[in-house]
């Protein structure tokens, strides 16, 4: 019986978080990132201000979602040369893992992209997140490939993945018949074809 209660609680928590994110994205599309407050968000989502902070640390996190997390074991497997032994393919595995939980909300992910692309402040915040992720993944690539692995090469590879991510979000916004991950893999295939 307690498992049933836990599942209901988790489902309700997930639904509340998603509602908060959807309202935050809508407010951002309508007013811009700096055009609304946490109080406005709480009113739009019909929750208390305190509830918002029980779920998110601030405005950026509620709009963009929490920082993506990848299992430490998968990171270690990557550093050790796996799971496929091919650097780019293994980065794609990490990208899939980082977006796995968000894949259930493909339409929401596309809406976030729209909000970001129309707001310079959010573009800056996304860029800051990219810089942090690039530094961490760059370190992982150097651990895997050796200290002499060029920093410029790792940044180029990561920018290529970010381009795939952005293209997949745009495709998801215009073609809901395929999932984000299907669009992401299609973009990767297009890049492979172009570079072959």
Protein model, in words:
This protein is mainly α. The chain has two domains: 1-65, Homeodomain-like (Arc Repressor Mutant, subunit A), CATH 1.10.10; 67-196. The chain has ten helices and no strands. It has helices at residues 2-31, 38-45, 49-55, 59-64, 72-79, 87-99, 106-117, 120-145, 151-174, 180-195. Helix 1 (2-31) crosses helix 2 and helix 7 (106-117) crosses helix 9 (151-174). The chain is globular and about 50 Å long. The protein starts with a helix and ends with a helix. InterPro entries: DNA-bd_HTH_TetR-type_CS, Homeodomain-like_sf, HTH-type_TetR-like_transc_reg, HTH_TetR. Residues 14-74 form the HTH tetR-type domain. One of its GO terms (molecular function) is DNA-binding transcription factor activity. Keywords: DNA-binding, Transcription, Transcription regulation.
Notable traits:
DNA-binding transcription factor activity, Arc Repressor Mutant, subunit A, 196 residues, single chain, 2 domains, mainly alpha, 0% strand
Quickly count the domains: 2
The proportion of residues forming helix, as a percent range, comes to over 70%
- Sum up the overall morphology in one term: globular
* Rg from alpha-carbon coordinates: 18 Å
Helix tally?
A: 10
Number of strands: 0
Beta-strand content estimate: under 5%
Biggest sheet overview: none
Question: Averaged pLDDT, please?
Answer: 87
Structural class: mainly alpha
Note the run of SSEs as H and E: HHHHHHHHHH
Low-confidence stretches: none
What gap, in angstroms, lies between the N and C termini? 56 Å
């Amino acid at each position: 019986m307690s498992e049933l209660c836990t599942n209901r609680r988790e489902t309700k928590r997930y639904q509340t978080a998603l509602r908060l994110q959807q309202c935050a994205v809508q407010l951002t599309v309508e007013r811009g990132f700096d055009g609304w407050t946490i109080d406005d968000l709480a009113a739009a989502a019909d929750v208390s201000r305190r509830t918002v902070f029980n779920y998110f640390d601030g405005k950026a996190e509620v709009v963009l979602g929490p920082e993506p997390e990848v299992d430490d074991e998968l990171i270690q497997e990557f550093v050790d040369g796996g799971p496929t032994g091919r650097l780019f393919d293994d980065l794609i595995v990490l990208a899939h893992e980082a977006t796995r939980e968000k894949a259930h909300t493909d339409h929401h992910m596309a809406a976030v992209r729209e909000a970001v692309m129309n707001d310079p402040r959010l573009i800056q915040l996304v860029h800051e997140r990219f810089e942090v992720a690039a530094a961490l993944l760059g370190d992982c690539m150097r651990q895997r490939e050796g200290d002499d692995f060029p920093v410029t090469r790792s940044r180029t590879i990561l920018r290529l993945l970010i381009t795939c991510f952005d293209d997949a979000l745009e495709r998801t916004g215009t073609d809901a018949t395929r999932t984000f991950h299907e669009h992401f893999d299609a973009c990767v295939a297009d890049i492979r074809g172009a570079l072959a």
